[in-house]
C-alpha cells in the first residue's frame, strides 16, 4: 500500500507546485520560494511515515511525514545493540541501519 501511496503523494505535490495552489493549503507566500527550491533541488529522501485511518470500510490518508525521522536513528541503534546483547548469533529482522548507511552514502 505505501509503495503505491508514495508516488501518488509526489504527483500531488508536483500538481500543487505546477498549479500554484499554495494558498488553498494556507501555505504562507514567504514559504513558497523555499518549497519550490527544495522541490527543484530534490535531495534524496531518507524516510517517510504515513498516518492512516481505517473505519472498517475505507482507508484514508491523514498525512505523510517525509524526512522527519523521529526516533529512526535511535531505533536502528537500539535494535542493533539489543540484538547483539540478547541474540549475538542472529541477524536483525529489518535493515534500518544498513538502509540508513546506504542512503547517507548516496
Outline of this structure?
The protein has 106 residues and is an alpha+beta fold. It has helices spanning 2-18, 32-41, 72-86, 96-105, and strands at residues 48-54, 59-66. The protein is built from 4 helices and 2 strands; from the N terminus they run ααββαα.
Task: Explain what this protein looks like in three dimensions.
This protein has 106 residues and is of the alpha+beta class. The chain has two domains: 2-66, no CATH class; 72-105, no CATH class. Helices cover 49% and strands 14% of the residues. The chain has four helices and two strands. It has helices at 2-18, 32-41, 72-86, 96-105, and strands at residues 48-54, 59-66. The protein has a two-stranded antiparallel sheet.
Amino acid at each position: 500500500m505505501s509503495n503505491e501511496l508514495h508516488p501518488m503523494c509526489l504527483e500531488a505535490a508536483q500538481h500543487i507546485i505546477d498549479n500554484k495552489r499554495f494558498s488553498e493549503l494556507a501555505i504562507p507566500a514567504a514559504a513558497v520560494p523555499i518549497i519550490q527550491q527544495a522541490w527543484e533541488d530534490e535531495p534524496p529522501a531518507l524516510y517517510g511515515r504515513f498516518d492512516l485511518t481505517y473505519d472498517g470500510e475505507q482507508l484514508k490518508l491523514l498525512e505523510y511525514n517525509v524526512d522527519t525521522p523521529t526516533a529512526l536513528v535511535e531505533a536502528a541503534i537500539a535494535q542493533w545493540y539489543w540484538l547483539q546483547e540478547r541474540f549475538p548469533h542472529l541477524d536483525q529482522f529489518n535493515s534500518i541501519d544498513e538502509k540508513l548507511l546506504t542512503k547517507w552514502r548516496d
